[in-house]
Write a structure and sequence with these properties.
Layout: H1 6-38, H2 41-47, H3 61-93, H4 100-131, H5 148-179
Helix pairs in contact: 1-3, 2-4, 3-4, 4-5
Length: 181
């Protein structure tokens, strides 16, 4: 049995990750729509930083539609980020590692992921208002929330952004050294 070289392993894993990122980029917005179409009110309440019993009565179709639309903002940014990651991994699978395109894709991925985290922070209060709109006066909510998941996602995006900058700097140095030959 022949052993794979490091480059061949990187190409295979990158091809698999490119496929997975593409699949998740397509599935994520669809799953958000399915959630808002099928989930019960107590499940949806958590999306708006609300207690499970904060929603009185049944949700109206317009509330589900607006909730889905608001929830699609962070989901679509995450999906776009995954699409850029897919492009980056597809390049890695073709041995295009230290390229301007790889740097660009990584930067766009990190920007989309950070934007998704910010959009999720903004979406929470909007969802709390939409979901409790049908409650009697005095029992409507505006719930604010920033969780560790938002902070971790933003930190992750910053790390990827910096890694892209390092790759870009290394590429620039390699190009400069090549011009001396």
């Amino acid at each position: 049995m022949q052993r794979l070289t490091d480059l061949e392993r990187i190409q295979r894993v990158s091809a698999a990750l490119a496929w997975a990122c593409g699949a998740f980029a397509v599935a994520l917005p669809v799953c958000v729509l399915i959630l808002w179409a099928m989930a019960d009110a107590s499940t949806l309440a958590s999306r708006g930083n609300l207690a499970a019993n904060a929603i009185w009565g049944n949700l109206q179709p317009w509330q589900r539609a607006v909730g889905a639309l608001v929830s699609e903002m962070p989901a679509m940014l995450a999906a776009l980020g995954l699409w850029h990651a897919r492009r980056c991994f597809a390049g890695f699978a073709r041995s295009e590692v230290f390229t301007a395109r790889a740097v660009q894709c990584l930067r766009r991925f990190s920007a989309c992921v950070a934007g998704s985290a910010l959009a999720a922070v903004v979406a929470g209060p909007l969802l709390s208002v939409v979901l409790t709109w049908g409650n009697p006066p005095g029992l409507r909510h505006l719930a604010l929330g920033v969780g560790s998941d938002h902070l971790f996602t933003t930190l992750f995006a910053a790390v990827v952004w910096l890694m892209a900058a390092v790759i870009g700097q290394g590429r620039a140095l390699a190009d400069e050294n090549a011009s001396f030959v």
